[in-house]
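name: query_chain
kind: protein
chains: 1
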Amino acid sequence: MDIDQYVQEIDNIATQVAIDYDSNEFRTPIEPYYLNENMLSSILKMTDVKRQLITEDEQSQTNMIRCGVIDSLDVDLETKFLLTSIYIEIWGKVCEIRFLQSIERYREDHPIFRNNVLAPT
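structure:
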């Protein structure tokens, strides 16, 4: 997997999580973004790329965040660490997608979007 595929996969998983967010019965306040088996399988394939890309800030965040689904996997600690870091990246992308969805209804009617780069084309 190369960096472009990695970024595309983050987008794909985040989009799916955002779509399923409101109807997801597995969502909890502690783990708002549930990962299913297909998502976990995709994320496992992304660990080699993440190992090369991870920053110190991401390492600090990863040490503070827990994901029950990832913590329960039978993999080594480094892999869990990388999976959690990818999970955080997906989480950020889902927040971005959900924010854009939340303002979608205002885009055409609100004056701020009329003469702005955010205006629909």
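note: The chain has a mean pLDDT of 81.
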